Amino acid sequence: MRSCWRLAWVATSLKTQRLLRLAGVSELWPKVRRDAIVIWSIKEGLSREECDDELWRLGEKTLFRCVMMPNDRLGGRCVI
Q1: pLDDT digits (tens, 9 = 90+) for 8-37
Q2: Going by C-beta distance under 8 Å and a sequence separation of 6 or more, which residues neighbour residue 47?
Q3: Mind spelling out the 3-state secondary structure of 12-36?
Q4: In this structure, are residues 68 and 75 in contact, taking their beta carbons and an 8 Å threshold?
Q5: Do the beta carbons of residue 44 and residue 6 sit within 8 Å?
Q6: Rounded CA gap, 34 and 55, in Å?
Q7: Which residue, 4, 7, 28, 68, is most buried by CB atoms nearer than 10 A?
Q8: How far apart are CA 58 and CA 19, in angstroms?
């Protein structure tokens, strides 16, 4: 999955936005806090799971629905 993220970032932003439209999801808008976090995650080469962790940590909706496990089991991490 990490390579897919990098491939999406390597493509021009116009192509990336077009791919998102074709997938039927909204385009990334850097002025939107959640989108800015996703853009930053892609730039940093984070995996989808790491991006979700960042979104969760910053109080934003994650990319996929997740369930928080108790702190004693997984350190309070989001799992699918």
Answers
A1: 555 556 677 788 888 888 888 999 999 999
A2: 1, 2, 5
A3: CHHHHHHHHHHCCCCCCCCCCHHHH
A4: no
A5: no
A6: 7
A7: 28
A8: 26
